[in-house]
Automatic annotation (TrEMBL):
Tagged with keyword Transcription regulation: yes
Pfam families linked to this entry: HTH_1, LysR_substrate
SUPFAM superfamilies given in the database record: Periplasmic binding protein-like II (SSF53850), Winged helix' DNA-binding domain (SSF46785)
Organism: Sinorhizobium kummerowiae
Taxonomic lineage: Bacteria, Pseudomonadati, Pseudomonadota, Alphaproteobacteria, Hyphomicrobiales
CDD domains associated with the record: PBP2_CrgA_like (cd08422)
This protein's UniProt keywords: DNA-binding, Transcription, Transcription regulation
Alphabetical list of InterPro entries matching this protein: LysR-type_TF_proteobact-type, LysR_HTH_N, LysR_subst-bd, WH-like_DNA-bd_sf, WH_DNA-bd_sf
This protein's name: LysR family transcriptional regulator
Annotated family: Belongs to the LysR transcriptional regulatory family.
Domain HTH lysR-type as annotated: residue spans: 11-63
Length: 296
């Protein structure tokens, strides 16, 4: 153990090399030379008795041992980096967070985060990625990801912040073509703008357990795209109610089967830092939770 702890420079260099993709880029971020960065990792490999990288003149890739070591070591180094949180007051909290937000929900959150959270915590800087794709938190180097829906999160800590109402909506023009929808069986006859990830469309689930796999007119992986397709009459949309509420209010979209309760979807925060998130992450998670619940 003492031998590994004595190679902290090698550990940091190894993690940074994986994140940046090369010794030269890692060295630049650490204020070192490429040759010294390479030597640090080589010493670490000797100590471990295993090759962490496959080296060639053009490509630097992780070995299976390197992948396993990275997934174990990177969260630990992040924890050490954030250890100052335990002696900082909330107002004095500082540091950087790399955050993943779901696309359309993220748009609802950006204004409050910019105008309220960042003003309340001037020492915290943010890098925000917005996508409905379920990012690989470890591989893509995110500190925390906010996700809507059910998903595998092996190796991650997950906290459910809220449960969000879903709704079935369609443009008035689509209803004119296909007629009123007065029972769930009618949904099987309608075209949908379906949410689909890696070729797998998501079903429509009702609170009573009924599940319908809609007929696809369009398969999309973005709530924004699904909403726009629905407004143009291309298909029914099964989406979060809050992202189409304005369209419902102005008549651009009409709610189908309003008396049939749909299964709510969980809104989660995921991270890979052991059982407790660092203070920056906790502050942002609490802020997002309070905003989501207050705006329900």
């Amino acid at each position: 153990m003492q031998g590994l702890l004595s190679e902290t420079a090698g550990l940091v260099t190894f993690v940074r090399t994986v994140q940046t993709g090369s010794f030269s880029a890692a060295a630049k971020s650490l204020g070192a030379t490429p040759s010294s960065a390479s030597k640090r990792v080589s010493r670490l490999e000797v100590l471990l008795g295993a090759k962490l990288f496959r080296r060639s003149t053009r490509v630097l890739t992780l070995t299976p041992e390197g992948e396993a070591f990275y997934e174990r070591v990177m969260p630990l180094l992040r924890e050490i980096e954030s250890s100052t949180d335990v002696v900082q007051s909330h107002g004095a909290t500082s540091g950087h967070l790399r955050v993943s937000l779901p696309g359309e929900m993220g748009r609802l959150l950006l204004g409050p985060i910019f105008s309220n959270f960042m003003q309340a915590y001037p020492g915290i800087s943010l890098e925000i990625g917005m996508t409905d794709r379920h990012v690989d938190i470890l591989r893509d180097n995110y500190d925390i990801a906010f996700r809507v829906g059910h998903s595998d999160h092996n190796g991650l800590m997950s906290k459910t912040l809220s449960h969000l109402d879903m709704v079935l909506v369609a443009a008035p023009s689509l209803i004119e073509r296909y007629g009123k929808v007065e029972e769930t069986a009618k949904l099987r006859e309608l075209p949908f703008a379906r949410y689909s990830v890696q070729g797998r469309p998501y079903p429509v689930r009702f609170a009573d357990g009924l599940e319908i796999l809609p007929r696809g007119r369009l398969d999309l992986d973005s709530a924004t795209a699904i909403k726009e397709a629905a407004k143009l009459g291309l298909g029914v949309a099964h989406v979060l109610k809050r992202i189409v509420q304005k369209d419902i209010d102005d008549g651009s979209l009409v709610v189908l089967l309003p008396n049939c309760e749909l299964e709510k979807l969980p809104f989660r925060a995921l991270h890979a830092f052991g059982r407790m998130p660092n203070l920056r992450m906790q502050l942002l998670t609490d802020f997002v939770t309070n905003f989501i619940r207050a705006s329900a």
